[in-house]
Amino acid sequence: MNTREKNLANIQKQEEVQAKEEKQMNSEMQNPTSLRKQLTNKNGDYVFRLEKALIDAGKSSAEAEKMVNALLNEIVTAQKQGIPASSLYKKSPILKAEEILHPVIKPKKPKYWMRAVDSSLLYFVVFTAMIAIMALTAGTKNQYNSQYGLLTLIAIAAILGTLMTYYTDILVAGGKGKAKFGKIALLTVAMVAVLFIVITIFSSKVFQVINPVLPAWGNLILVALVYGARYLFRKHYHITGSVLNPVPQVKSRD
């Protein structure tokens, strides 16, 4: 065996020894018994009181120990950085036990299409109700909703719901002033233009057959039905907030 081969063999042996030591160290780090021995007096007391709080809440000693063991690694890691468990969790052992037993699950943000559908249903309810009220107020002389047939109302609601949901996302997400203002201005112009085109097209005689103008009471019945459908839709997809009352976006840790 020449010198080069000997050097390669020594390097390989050193790497194997180092890998074995790292594996053993990681194993010790994950060993609850070893981790407990590394705790300072302050952290040891915190862990002791945390286990006691879990037991007082109805957990067995084994269950409480298992729950606390799951936290030991992060407690020791923070401890090495000079951060005690009380500062790490910013809670007393009793409150931390309550958090472990009753974790708060943050609701997932609904997908864009879900919020767009919800917004469209909302705009349909608002706009159709407004048309019906104006018709009832004006009586037989009413001319307000002569061009707003059923298809027109659906199209307006769909356009407003889709674009205003995106519009709201821009406002809530934040961003640089000029870029944000530019997007809002462009979206506003596009929305007005699309609404004008849609209303003009659907108001033509060609669409009268499939775009009937409902009487005021018909629109009110439709409003009630769509409002109920929206309630069920929101409940099914766990939607909170709306385009008129947006919920601030929270970035996920994942």
How would you sum up this structure, described in words?
The protein has 254 residues and is mostly helical. The protein has helices at residues 3-30, 32-38, 41-56, 61-80, 85-89, 93-101, 112-138, 150-173, 177-202, 216-237. Helix 3 runs antiparallel to helix 4 and helix 7 runs antiparallel to helix 10. Mean pLDDT is 83; it is low at 249-254.
In short:
The protein has helices at 3-30, 32-38, 41-56, 61-80, 85-89, 93-101, 112-138, 150-173, 177-202, 216-237. The protein has 254 residues and is mainly α.
Distance between the ends? 52 Å
Total number of helices: 10
Which percent range fits the helix content?
Answer: over 70%
Q: How much strand content do the residues show? A: under 5%
State mean pLDDT (0 to 100 scale).
Answer: 83
Order of helices and strands: HHHHHHHHHH
Structural class assignment? mainly alpha
* Uncertain spans: 249-254
Shape: elongated
Radius of gyration (Å): 32 Å
Largest sheet: none
What is the total tally of β strands?
0
Characteristic key phrases:
10 helices; disordered C terminus; elongated; mainly alpha; about 250 residues
Secondary structure elements and pairings:
Layout: H1 3-30, H2 32-38, H3 41-56, H4 61-80, H5 85-89, H6 93-101, H7 112-138, H8 150-173, H9 177-202, H10 216-237
Helix pairs in contact: 2-4, 3-4, 3-6, 7-8, 7-10, 8-9
